[in-house]
Amino acid sequence: MELSLQGKNALVGGASAGIGRAVAQELALLGANVILLARTESALQSAVAALPAVAGQTHRYCVADYSDTAALRTQVEALLQDVGAIHILVNNTGGPPGGPIAAAESAAFLQAYNNHLLCNHLLAQLLLPGMQAAAYGRIINIISTSVKEPLDGLGVSNTTRWAVAAWAKTLANEVGRFGVTVNNVLPGYTETARLQEIIAKRAAGAGQSEAEIAESFKQHVPLRRFARPEEVAAAAAFLASPAAAYINGINLPVDGGRTKSL
Ligand code: NAD
Predict the structure, then answer these.
(1) Does residue 115 have its Cβ closer than 6 Å to ligand 1?
(2) Fewer CB atoms < 10 Å away: N or C end of the chain?
(3) Ligand 1 pocket member 141 (CB < 6 A)
(4) How far is the CA of 177 from the centre of ligand 1 (A)?
(5) Residue 119 and residue 39 in contact, taking contact as beta carbons nearer than 8 Å
(6) CA–CA separation, 249 and 172 (whole Å)
(7) Buried b or exposed e, range 239-255, using 16+ CB within 10 angstroms
(8) Rounded to whole angstroms, how far apart are CA atoms 247 and 244?
């Protein structure tokens, strides 16, 4: 099985923490040159410094905020001038705030749509020419199991995730012929700041301790535990590899079996 990413360039969004950072780590372990994108330079500097360079590869970072698409475009265009083709794009950023959908304001939908759908689209459009020229492209979107089953209390997120999944499936149909695959990884409960935040909010709302809420979440998972970020990242790294060349247009849950639908 060919897993080596030696000679490949990868851009990973939301890569200063959580799942994005773990994906960057796994891609680096497979030999890719990894570019980490997030908002805070100091966090990016320490994340880049911690990346392995098993094949003597070079890693770098790009400071950008998905809330500012014009600046994001400028930054990534400059990056492409420097590095040439980027073969692997991991679309990932912080999740939309939680809350019941009936209470959600229009601004929250617009913000989530911008940061998740429009930024994914912008980055794909910027990177696709290089992927096509290299006849090797992997677009991997970190979404959520809510693509398969909407999650209670995450109204704006549920709505936006479906849009991203529909966008990804359509793109997969269009670009497969150029050697570019488009796939989605759907994390379940994963031990990151995002999950901590959701647990804390739920605990405050229910008048229970965070430990009690965490335990109740785990009861919905056949494996009875949360994922470590590297377990989600391993799935993304496999999809980025040459071995996954014939996997295209899928939703891959990494949720310990929590999703009930097939
Ligand atoms: P996280 O909050 O731990 O990390 C998010 C990363 O994105 C950080 O590097 C952060 O700096 C960066 N980021 C946030 N807003 C940004 C912006 N505007 N511009 C650029 N970078 C930005 O989140 P996570 O748990 O790693 O989640 C990643 C994705 O997976 C999110 O969409 C999340 O909703 C989804 N997800 C997470 C879980 C979970 O249990 N952790 C479950 C399902 C889905």
Answers:
(1) yes
(2) C
(3) no
(4) 31
(5) no
(6) 5
(7) bbbeebeeebebbbbbb
(8) 5
- The answer to whether the CB of 146 is under 6 A from ligand 1 is no
Instruction: Please work out whether the CB of residue 155 comes within 6 Å of at least one atom of ligand 1.
Output: no
Angle at 69 between CA 87 and CA 35, to 5 degrees: 30
Residue tagged 């056949």 (tokens) = 222
Note the pLDDT tens digit of each residue in 103-123.
999 999 999 999 999 999 999
Find the helix or strand (DSSP H, E) in which 40 lies: none
> What sign results for the dihedral spanned by CA atoms 217, 221, 225, 228?
negative
Domains of the chain and any CATH numbers: 9-189+228-254 (3.40.50.720)
Q: What does the pLDDT look like over 21-52, one tens digit per residue?
A: 999 999 999 999 999 999 999 999 999 999 99
Q: Which two tokens stand for residue 147?
A: 């693509």
Question: Is the Cβ atom of 16 under 6 angstroms away from ligand 1?
Answer: yes
Please identify every stretch of the chain with a pLDDT value under 70, giving residue numbers as ranges: none
Dist. CA 229 → ligand 1 center (Å): 11
Q: Which amino acid residue places its CA nearest to atom 41 of ligand 1?
A: 190
Q: Rg of the chain's alpha carbons, rounded to an integer?
A: 18
- Look up tokens 């990884």; give the residue: 185
Distance 133 CA to ligand 1 centre (A): 31
State phi, psi for 121 to the nearest 5 degrees: -65, -45
Q: Is 95 in the pocket of ligand 1 (CB under 6 A)?
A: yes
**Cβ of 142 below 6 Å from ligand 1:** yes
Cβ of 226 less than 6 Å from ligand 1: no
Which amino acid is present at 145?
T
CA of 13 to the centre of ligand 1 (A): 9
